[in-house]
């Protein structure tokens, strides 16, 4: 009987795949012609002459209650009898298509915000959407409907980065609502296939169908702590809610026309954010007129009853969420419990119909149920993925994102330098390029590699010098075994080890992929296992190796170059074991831990071949594995770094953070870090100690920071001649850093967050009051202010004019200013406009960004720039008594300059009383 069930299951899978291939290859192209027959057959949802809404309603009306509930969760199953293919809603595209194998990786979101360049964001988001469409249709043609293969993307994250300790702040566009809104709107339009001016693209370019769905998340009032996100209840003041936490979401809904909104885990005023009547009904739909769909964050519906304890049962939680406006459940609560809720009378089936019709409408608007030949976006060729032009754009974006915090004249460095020491734990670490929610770049360029490629013929000496953080078994500290010391079999002329890849965790059966890997140093994200280091592309034909539950055996011979005592090290995300000459020397197969590394010391003979075998399995989530060694006589890393510095003309120290220590709800803690957040904003102690020792050598030290957040680098500011912030700069980050270090590009990135002093007493992390936070409300002296960034040239500001000095609240004011490059180098300048209240009265923000333009000027070139603003939009505050926005009459200042702390020129105007 079991065999019969398995056979039936296999037939169902094959049927679904045939249906998918039919849709993808256009075999259903006759459906529009046969629309009347389709109607007669009872399938009006396939009639393309009808509106998407009509078709969706007709389809929903044919579903059973259980089918409806199942379609309201992220992994929606196929309904074969209705011709509906399965669909997985879960997809990510924070700074490139993520977790789906090979894709172009742009700077992390915080780095894109640092560009202050909306036109550049337009290009980036359009490029991401091209790759997304191409990857989706390639998967669909192969009958694949898995996670990270769809058209609904859960990006951007537009939460306000209110506190530098939040590990997910790297995913945002910074601390300012206005900057967040402008960058977010651009990102949404590029993903959804809308022109930068907001108009629909011509039908010939896909205008009838939306290109992708973007998702504004996490709605609302969410920015850590990560450890408490499933339980805490935040009660912001009405002023903070409406002036800080909601404006970017309102802009993306009303101006950006974002199609989807994701709720948050936490409660707001006692209601779950993923089931809040206030947020999802009263504000989102009734006040802002949102027409799209809302989804829960993943397993947030479980939190409603299990953690928040708002209701007692899962069926009550499911009914509450749907009633209050959450149509799609990331998780399994809806499928299991909505039918029960309907039968218990907790919710009516008509309410499910309304919610599901929204979801089916969006699938139709994306062209999912129509012949591929009818959908222009389906014609995007797979060859666009990781195209050379995309790589060039990633490099330009990284160049524009780099912020020069300090320069005492040491930069740019001369390319004629005799010897350069590159030191630090993130100098040659691919993770330092990627941040989180990333794809797999074809050929990632670390900072070390970027510098070496920029200095052919120069002696560039590298020493890691220190671990990223104290107490972390850092598997990246020990050098990988290089290819010349490995061969796949005795007598082979190839270099490396034979890799056998299996579709299970047990190395069982026949391998689905066999290849020779030159080095064992891999880092795979949650998508298809794709080789970051060796740039081989997808792992086997048709992604033969799954993204989880796989194993690999590497075997061959180890060829030590000299006799002596070696330290062999293996490290992996999950289980591994290492054999030498048949003897098990390292075994962590059963006690696997995330990012574990272990080593063994052995006496080996030079010139002898040793049989070596490394076995590895991956369970779930991110995967990594490496095989490394220390040769006899190797200096300790710290001493090696100091020796390199003493013998060099200058030192570039590359350090800071990576996505290994800051990020989303992590399970590991280190000194200064807790669950992905930080408890200390200073540079990790391991790096600070090394940095001070390098400075003591007397050689000039340039600090390059990889980070997703602000760092308290007081000592570096006081002692080092130059400091760059590279963020997590994406696949060409190393090239971009080198471009700036050696003067091929003049830096012009700006800080989208305030950098505070290390000893600044910030408000409690779990306090959501904005007082004392961000440049808008911080009254102290920042280490580096919001908007700060230096250049290799200088700029003058002059001639500020307002077209009126007395206005009504709804009037538009135009400010005109002239900016001139008064230096000797061509460069970009980011011109920023801030507004500030001058009249005494209610407590307000210190000042607020209300305009910015990034312009390129040659030496001596001038340009007149125009900014417009409207008091009713740009000077509004929330009036708690009136329960709405208002504009105070009185005098205001317009201030224009290079940062919130470097305002060069100003003027005043008055807003009349209503």
CATH architecture of the domain at 400-474 and 636-768: 3-Layer(aba) Sandwich
Briefly note the CATH topology name of the domain at 400-474 and 636-768.
Rossmann fold
Task: Determine the fraction of residues in helical runs and give it as a percent range.
Answer: 25-40%
> Measured on Cα atoms, how large is the radius of gyration?
28 Å
**Kindly, what is the distance between the CA atoms of the first and last residues, rounded to a whole number of angstroms?**
80 Å
Residue windows where pLDDT falls under 50 for at least 5 positions: 1-40, 526-542
At the fourth CATH level, what is the homologous superfamily of the domain at 400-474 and 636-768? Glycoside hydrolase family 3 C-terminal domain
Number of strands: 39
Keywords: Hydrolase, Signal
Family: Belongs to the glycosyl hydrolase 3 family.
InterPro entries: BXL (IPR044993), Fn3-like (IPR026891), GH (IPR017853), Glyco_hydro_3_C (IPR002772), Glyco_hydro_3_C_sf (IPR036881), Glyco_hydro_3_N (IPR001764), Glyco_hydro_3_N_sf (IPR036962), Ig-like_fold (IPR013783)
Domain PA14: 492-645
Protein topology:
Layout: H1 2-24, H2 35-40, H3 52-61, H4 65-71, E1 75-76, E2 87-88, H5 109-114, H6 118-141, H7 177-192, E3 215-219, E4 233-234, H8 238-245, H9 247-254, E5 260-263, E6 267-268, E7 271-272, H10 277-287, E8 293-295, H11 300-306, H12 314-323, H13 333-343, H14 349-365, H15 388-401, E9 403-407, E10 419-423, H16 431-434, H17 447-454, E11 459-463, E12 486-487, E13 497-502, E14 513-517, E15 521-524, E16 530-531, E17 537-538, E18 550-558, E19 564-572, E20 576-580, E21 583-588, E22 596-604, E23 610-618, E24 623-630, H18 637-646, E25 650-656, E26 673-674, E27 677-678, H19 685-696, E28 701-706, H20 714-719, E29 722-725, H21 733-741, H22 774-777, E30 795-802, E31 806-807, E32 813-821, E33 827-837, E34 848-857, E35 862-869, H23 871-874, E36 877-879, E37 884-886, E38 890-899, E39 902-911
Parallel strand pairs: 3-5, 4-6, 5-8, 10-11, 10-25, 25-28, 28-29, 31-39
Antiparallel strand pairs: 1-2, 6-7, 9-29, 12-18, 13-14, 13-18, 15-24, 16-17, 18-23, 19-22, 19-24, 20-21, 20-23, 26-27, 30-32, 32-35, 33-34, 33-38, 36-37, 38-39
